[in-house]
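User: Teach me something about this protein's shape.
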Amino acid sequence: MTEGGRHDHRSASDGQLRKGSAARGSRGSGVQGHAFGAAGARDTWPASGSNRAAAHQGLYIEGRRAVAEALRTGFPHRRALIAAGQSDPGSEEFISALSEIGTPIEYVSRERLSELSSHGAHQGIMLEVGSFPYADITDIISAAGSGPALVVVLDHVTDEGNLGAIVRSAEVVGAAGVVIANKRAAGVGIGTFKTSAGAVMHLPIAQVANLASALEQLKEAGFWAVGASEHAEGTSWETPLDGRVALVMGAEGTGLSRLVQERCDMLTRLPQRGQTESLNVAQAATVLCYEWLRRSWDSLPPVPEV
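Assistant: First, the predicted structure itself:
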């Protein structure tokens, strides 16, 4: 494979992978000089082509780890909800950080937090945020650069928890972005924030109207579309998963749709010895993301120091 194009025979691409954050401009104010970090010095948002819809009520970041990451990266938010009567060093640190950047704080009952929580794991703190700033597919292609890169494409995955877990795995291995459908699919919501452990704040997520067209754009940018299917003939150990790969994962229960599968250059499945039917989509995506990382490791640039 060569830069900007695709040949009939697979080979590892030359060049360097730019992690998603390298193509993102900073946005929002951070906790300057605080223990959570200085967000103003971090690149956290898609630089161009992003859908910046008007903020709306009802989207929250919950849990201390996710909230700390939001403060560290300067994730835009409206107010903080903190459990009334909660007094411990960790809570005091959050209150200090929030006060320092002028975030309104409202003290509410733990019962109220539990009503707003997706999993009941709010740990006494939540941030109310506006609409998630989805990227455009061109943002992800830009973040991928010209060398080895991974983009994860989700064919109507409907569970926010699965979406968050997949985004977390994709970000950890250094993927350039994740592509999701804008209808009949999970979007970035409170469950996604929680299960991604803050990864949604670091990785471009494009919400598109037509996944098949998005795959064609990725293929034009030199990506090979590899679909995960239990009906594939070859396993991930045999499939060429190195270089520029658009990894396509199907929906829970139904797998890849016909139109999306037709756009894939090849299909792959996980090797299996046991009797359980298969892993769920988040687990399978994690395994395949790491298989790409293992195959591409020697072609990737050194991990930058943070």
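Now, about its shape. The radius of gyration is 20 Å. The longest helix spans residues 281-296. If you'd like, I can walk through any region in more detail.
User: That's plenty for now, thanks!
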